[in-house]
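Running this now, will post back.
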Amino acid sequence: MSIQFSLARRLKAGETVHTGWCGLPYPIVAETIGREGFPAVTIDQQHGLWDTAATLAGIAAIRQGGAAPIVRIPVGDFATVSRALDFGAEGIIAPMINTAEDARAFVSVAKYPPVGERSWGPHRAMTLGNIPDQKTYLRDANALTVTFAMIETRTALANLDAIAATPGIDGLFVGPSDLSIALSDGAEVEPHGAAVENELDRIVAAADKAKKIPGLYCANAERALFGAKRGFRFMAVGSDLGFLRAGTAAQVKALKEAGS
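Update: finished.
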């Protein structure tokens, strides 16, 4: 019986990993995105519609679809971290990590001692991950689960190296929309604008220097290919709502063209 945790293994092997992104709180949608080929699927609790019950079901559904479940928690809601990991999430994305202190607070609930202070209770995670006993999970959990600190503000950029160097932080994940708002002092939302573009190499360099994984939210596959060329190895691609809109629009367009 092999242990069913794939995200950390892929990243440590040097693979580039793409994750689907789910804001709609429907486990079957998240499962389908995994079944269609994404190796990971992220449940977005920050801006999506997921509550605790839906997240619990969604994590299991994503695993059933053959993908690694990831959860983005709400801002500062570190109590959610250990619960999501207990439910079987393989990765956690924490938004608005602005300082080394923020990073340490995140790590404290995501990693077991001696790295952090995560509380014990991973019964569902052990079941879904085919972990045979408590000793094995405790021994391996810190390595099997992945923590991403989101870089989204001027303050985070000023503390970039300190955040990246924090023990227990496994990756940096760029939130380009919020970063664009911060860099423009609230004047615009332009995730692909020059201000954000100018910071990407610096963020990748900080991650590489600390031997952490550089990550980026990407609006579409074209942007993800761009991100890979810039050195990012973990990228979110689009969203479930975006996929639904695009698929619906294509069918409506085909019907209109056929009827004209």
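The radius of gyration is 18 Å. More later if anyone needs it.
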